[in-house]
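Thread: quick sanity check before group meeting

JM: Hey all, I'm pulling together slides for Thursday and realized we never actually wrote out the predicted structure for the chain we discussed last week. Dropping the sequence here so it's in one place. If anyone has concerns about the input, flag it before I start.
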Amino acid sequence: MAKFVIAGQADCPYYARVELLADQLSLNLPDFRVHKIVKHPDEWEDWLSDTCDSNGWARQRSPLVWRELIDRGGKGVLIGGSNDFQEYAHEYYGIQSPLTTADMKSVASENNDAKLKDIEIARVAAEEIQPLVVVVTNASSPVVYHMIPRLLEGSVFGTDSEISLRLLDSEENSENLEGLVMECEDMAQPLLRRAAAYTDAAAAFRGAGVIIFMDDPAPEGSPPSDDDDPDEHPLLRRHRCLKANEELFSYYGETVEKEALHDCKIVAAEETLAAFNTQILVGKVTRIPRQNFVGVTRALENDAKSILARRLKVKMSDVADVIVWGTAAAETRFVDVSRSRVNRYDGSIYGPSDYSRAVPELVHDDKWLETEFPETLAGHSEAVMKTGLKCLASSRAAAVTSMLRDWWVGSVTGDIHSLAVVNEGWYDLPEGLVISLPVLMHQGSWEAVQNLDITPEIRAKLDEAVKGLQGDLLLAIRPPSAPTVVADDEVVADGNDAAVADGNDAVVADGNDEALSKVFGATEDESAPAPADQNGGETPGEDVVPEVTEGDGTTDPTEDPPAAGPPADTEPTEDTDINHQQTTEDD
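JM (edit): ok, ran it. Output follows.
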């Protein structure tokens, strides 16, 4: 059995003659197969050159005809052009073409019009299939490097969604971005429509459907750099960390407001400050639903599952319903395993495939759950790093992509997960505050799990988280320049060292949208004015010596206001150094 391939230029009259002759042969001969290749005039020369070179044929004109042996395979046998194929058909089959020159030109014109229509239909169809634009910031980080293959393989956004991947980073990392784009292309993933490097956030966010923020401009808890003051007070260092995040994510939020799609999904993936960064973004973006903003706390959830799995000698994936309340920060979180369970536990009690057993029942050691477990969890990341790893890139990438998968296509198992979301008054928490809560993940949405019993321990941690988040929001926009004094001469010092404000001009974020919007939009000139000194001037910056209070908690009005820094010929003392933030008290 033979197959004849007829290729030609769409407006070629000789191709029209050969095409109709081949159609006549295929109608009369059951074993005669015809395959046609029609090229636009602009495409013909390049295609012809490539085809002849790859088969070792001499350069031909339109049309080009060759014969392939279907039952034997192997290289095609060149027949030639129009005259060659007519002689072949006459010699072997006794058939000739009856077309006149005028008929040939008419058919060629019809062929060309049909080809142009096919090209236009294909173009319109391609435009209608819009890829999902996914933006990843801080793209040169190791976590993003491990995340990209997961984003493109189809398990996160589904196998029907083509992806346009945009990698955003700073100018100094542009060379790394170009290399990363080349690696994306080398993976040859069928769902990747295109990958591109960006150093401009506005261009990267334009038309974005998903934005994953991987930035951590001032990592909390990182050791001081050579340029840092080793004696700097922790409160000032925390202010610098929060201020850097507030400035960056305020800029991101304003850019998202202008450029991203109205239903864009926003993910703050740097876990320690996920709730804080999400809160800043929510305050800057008004046209995207608040339900589309989330902060990732799943890495902490997964760490807890792995510790429980090793204790119980089960697979980590079989541990479910571990809840992170509050934030991911060590001071303001509570990892709740009281409701967690183990699926498919190999024990003396058996049940159906969906049968599970409670973790506290299987652990059977309340002391371990109350003491050793949280201690092990607190040092888990450090313990992993001590093995020689430079970073926790793979597990952190898996945490982000698994959360996105459950959010986008839904959780198959229906397990409870943890997510930092904008609270709507659940569990008597301030409305509008971003905080980690238990959620169920559905296709394209999440649902807060409501009406769970809250133990006094959980309530205490939630209250600490609220105070810490509200204090952080204020501390980010207002540097601490003196001890915070409120009514009854009481110095505010919560567990996070977060100074809220002094008693006369406190701006307390009580959770409602109005108060939160004040915090988001606050500047030192507007919502959070710096307190004036005793002579009516503004309080100077971070280098100012704090006022020293008398025994009654007030400043002596007869004394001169403190100088802006210690004299050049004196050494600062603990009572005058801002980094120590101390006040004198009555004996």
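AS: nice. The mean pLDDT is 79. The longest strand covers residues 434-442.
JM: adding both to the slides.
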